[in-house]
Amino acid sequence: MTTVTKTEGAPAGTGPEGFLSVRDLSVRFATEDGVVRAVDGLSFDVERGRTLGIVGESGSGKSVTNLTILGLHNPRTTTIDGEIVLDGKELVTATEKEMEKLRGNKVAMIFQDPLTALSPYYTVGRQIAEPFMKHTGASKKEGWARAVEMLGKVGIPNPAQRAKDYPHQFSGGMRQRAMIAMALVCDPDLLIADEPTTALDVTVQAQILDLLKDLQQEFGSAIVFITHDLGVIADMADDIMVMYAGSAVERGTVDEVLRAPRHPYTWGLLNSMPRLDSDLSAPLAPIPGSPPSLLSPPSGCRFHPRCAFRDRVAGDRCVTERPLLGPDRSSACHLTAEQKRTIFAEEIKPRLG
Predict the structure, then answer these.
(1) What CA–CA distance (Å, rounded) separates 233 from 248?
(2) What class, spelled out in words, does domain 13-94+228-274+290-352 have in CATH?
(3) pLDDT for 277-311, tens place per residue?
């Protein structure tokens, strides 16, 4: 039987509540094979004007968390526990009608693939104008003018003309800019970006990241930025939350997590990244094994089957006790604080350079 323990002497919360406050969130899906525990006991906060980067392998629960914030789940097959509070409004218990008023207005999302998120049957301008008209009561003329304005803000050349085009007439980078324009058209307080630069080349990716930072400065939005790329996180985020198998395993500011990571999974992510100054013939160092099935996750620490340091923990605590995240700067690991500092300094940091 697995028991739940707190680590580093702190409660499982994250400190003072932010503009977006998620507390002990659990999301389970009923499938033919059993119940998938997609998110399990997740807590975090995001402040206005700050960006939280959520990083982890595919299947770690990043996207599910943020789709749940938006209420984009099937209520017939999904069970949600915990709290999601946005600017004082509880979202878990909100009705679909209430969520429709919030989506695109107070909270908006930039999806990973704009080609599937944009309708091929309507012009880009119309698709940007419609949410603005719906939430503000603006006329068609006002909505169209707002769409052209937003296309200009995101750097689309000749926006008045390009607003009349269809998504297939835009390049990949331009479609992503159009998605950002659509997300920001109602000046949302919270923007969720789900791997918005994954399919773009490096130059366009840098332009999109700079654009998001500029628009955040202009609108003052809180941003949740989902990615598997720690390099993007380093450039984009103020704070980082590392997720593994549906739970958070480490949290802190960008400098704290990237300069002095405390969890073996974060060490593995950093160690598996290619470096520009490394020997090109040297093999990468992937994390051994695969993420666990969320139908039957491992007991204790969910990372223990892949962890190279579990033998440094006395007894079988890694197998029997599940470590949870403390507030603010913390990691969910049974290694002592001194062990974490020593292992990083002597074994991990020299590999990272």
Answers:
(1) 16
(2) alpha beta
(3) 666 666 677 888 899 999 999 999 999 999 999 99
